[in-house]
């Protein structure tokens, strides 16, 4: 069985204040963009969310990424891994 993986990277960009949506929701960032992208999108699934693993299961993240040091306060992994399923 073959799998096709795709890497998505959302960059922080300055969004022009051209729509009232940006006046109401002040936290317009890549997390909101990722949530909007995945909300009703059955073509992609989350395979790993490093920030979630950092907070809930650091030992699993350490096993997946041996360079990760859960004791380092400056370290905060924040990658979101997606897999296209359709």
Map the helices and strands.
Layout: H1 20-24, H2 30-38, E1 44-49, H3 50-56, H4 58-64, E2 80-84
Helix pairs in contact: 3-4
Would you give an account of this structure?
It is a single chain. The protein has one domain. It is 33% helix and 13% strand. The chain contains four helices and two strands. Strands 1-2 form a two-stranded antiparallel ribbon. The protein starts with 19 loop residues before the first helix and ends with a strand. Residues 12-17 have low confidence and may be disordered.
Beta-strand share of residues? 5-15%
Spatial arrangement of strands, main beta sheet: 1-2
Query: Considering DSSP H and I runs of 4 or more, what fraction of the residues is helical?
Result: 25-40%
Could you tell me how far the N terminus lies from the C terminus, measured between alpha carbons in angstroms?
14 Å
> What string gives the helices and strands in order?
HHEHHE
Structural class: alpha+beta
Count of DSSP-assigned helices: 4
- Number of folding domains? 1
Tell me, what's the shape? elongated
Specify the biggest β-sheet: 2 strands, antiparallel
Care to count the β-strands? 2
Mean pLDDT: 78
Keywords summarizing the entry:
86 residues, alpha+beta, 33% helix, elongated
Can you summarize this structure?
This protein is an alpha+beta fold and 86 residues long.
């Amino acid at each position: 069985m073959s799998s096709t993986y795709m890497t998505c990277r959302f960059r922080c960009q300055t969004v022009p204040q051209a729509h009232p949506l940006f006046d109401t929701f002040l936290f317009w960032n890549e997390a909101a963009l990722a949530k909007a992208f995945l909300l009703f999108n059955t073509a992609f699934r989350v395979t790993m969310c490093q920030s979630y693993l950092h907070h809930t299961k650091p030992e699993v993240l350490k096993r997946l990424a041996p360079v990760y040091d859960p004791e380092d306060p400056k370290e905060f992994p924040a990658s979101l891994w997606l897999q296209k399923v359709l």
